[in-house]
Amino acid sequence: MAKLSIEKEDYIRRINFAFDNGLRLSIVFGAMTYSDNYDKNTSENVKEKAEKVELAVIHSPSGKFITDLILKANCYGGDDVRGYVKVSSLPKIILRVKEFDGKNINRILVLKELEK
Which of 2, 11, 70, 111 qualifies as a FRET site for 59, CA 20 to 30 Å off? Predict the structure, then answer.
């Protein structure tokens, strides 16, 4: 069964979807994230709404970020997150992560490590 959690820190909002296939989708917006509020610092009021967000896909058992693998994303540097994602595209992204067949994920993670 999929699970949803919402975290509210001082200047960051995070929504986590945990799926049965062992993947977690983390959606973040707030100060200093790759979202509408990128230019805000931690002492400024951060908007409670966003049109663009930062997201990451995490393989929960290993804690490895696999955003680039699942979303074929152009991730930022070594962060392995995808930034400035339009909120209107989230339903498709959620479905892609939810339906990802994780049978070969451990093999994929080993190959990804070897590429470094």
Answer: 11
Mean pLDDT over all residues of the chain? 81
Kindly state the helix (H) or strand (E) to which residue 5 belongs, with its residue range.
strand 3-8
Under the banding of pLDDT at 50, 70 and 90, the label for residue 116 is: low
How many domains are there within the chain?
Answer: 1
- The residue to which tokens 């999929």 are assigned: 2
> Residue 20 is encoded by which pair of tokens?
């049965």
What count of other Cβ atoms lies within 10 Å of the Cβ of residue 105? 20
Determine contact, residues 21/101, Cβ cutoff 8 Å: yes
Q: 31 near 12, Cβ under 8 Å?
A: yes
Task: Give me the domain span that covers residue 23.
Answer: 3-115
C-alpha to C-alpha distances, 39 to 26, 49, 88, nearest whole angstrom: 21, 15, 22
String of b and e for 35-74 (b: at least 16 CB within 10 Å)? bbbeebeeeeebeeebebbbbbbbbeeeebbbbbbbbebe
